[in-house]
UniProtKB/TrEMBL annotation:
Protein name in UniProt: Sgc region protein SgcQ
Family per similarity comment: Belongs to the BtpA family.
NCBIfam families attached to this UniProt entry: thylakoid_BtpA
InterPro entries, A to Z: BtpA, RibuloseP-bd_barrel
Pfam families per UniProt: BtpA
């Protein structure tokens, strides 16, 4: 049994993304509508996800485009306000993701009671956001300093919009990441949010580290969820739950329910005949 059962309540878990709208300081923040509107839209999406039956929710500043790798204080403060206002309405386990800043994700988790974070913890990349470096040793020491030892760390090892500076095969990355860092999970992604995770890459990662939780991190939809969940231990789902399946839209509860009905059918014990 993996930690998914203990923390999220089920194996083959589906973690749904609650994408926050642009926040103060972001280029696309709507100053006229302000933070009250951000909170209200997050509330709407949260309830659509929960009522649709997801196993867990992860709050992220998805529309803070273009992303920073050293996130500003005002972003974390705004995310803390949103989650704080919604805390009494959150009925499923939840995590946070401050894109793309691992230490600030931990800060937000410690402040809000989040159970997990997803981040780029390791590696050096050539990315759309410039040369992207990490410091996992400092990050996990920061986790200890702020009393967030209980927070599960989901390591994204195929970063979106980025490529390792040094060519390394995915099996080597997976094995060395597990050996050196003891991640709670590895996340395997496509090129961007909503892009399908390559099933062959997903299988190569899982075969390389069979005792580690591996999650399909992007592009899981109704037409591929059985294929993806047969290989992976769970999935992070965002775009597939949106109106018309478009990244920029809000959550469609009917789409969530249809997806989760399929997942629950897949998870039912198979009866031998």
């Amino acid at each position: 049994m993996t930690w998914l059962k203990e923390v999220l309540g089920t194996e083959k878990a589906v973690i749904a993304m609650c994408h926050l709208m642009a926040l103060p300081g972001d280029p696309y923040f709507d100053k006229e509508k302000g933070m009250d509107y951000v909170v209200e839209m997050a509330r709407k999406d949260l309830h659509a996800l929960q009522d649709g039956g997801v196993d867990a929710v992860m709050f992220s500043n998805e529309f803070s485009l273009p992303y920073l790798t050293n996130v500003k204080t005002e972003t974390v403060a705004a995310m803390g306000r949103v989650i704080g206002e919604l805390k009494s309405e959150i009925k499923v386990p939840f995590g946070v993701n401050v894109l793309w800043d691992a230490k600030k994700s931990l800060d937000l988790a410690a402040a809000t009671g989040a159970l997990f974070i997803r981040e780029i913890f390791t590696g050096v990349y050539a990315s759309d956001f410039g040369l992207w470096n990490t410091n996992v040793g400092e990050t996990v020491r920061h986790q200890q300093r702020i009393g967030a030892e209980h927070v599960k760390l989901l390591f994204n090892i195929v970063p979106e919009a980025a490529k390792y500076v040094a060519e390394r095969d995915i099996e080597s990355v997976a094995r060395s990441t597990v050996f050196n860092n003891r991640p709670d999970a590895l996340c395997v992604s496509g090129l961007t949010a909503g892009s399908r995770t390559d099933s062959q890459i997903l299988k190569r990662v899982k075969d390389s580290v069979p005792d580690t939780v591996v999650l399909a991190n992007t592009g899981v939809r109704r037409d591929n969820l059985i294929e993806q969940l047969t290989i992976a231990d769970g999935a992070v789902v965002g775009t597939a739950f949106k109106i018309d399946g478009k990244f920029e839209n809000h959550v469609d509860q009917a789409r969530v329910k249809e997806f989760m009905d399929d997942v629950n059918t897949f998870r039912k014990p198979k009866v031998a005949v």
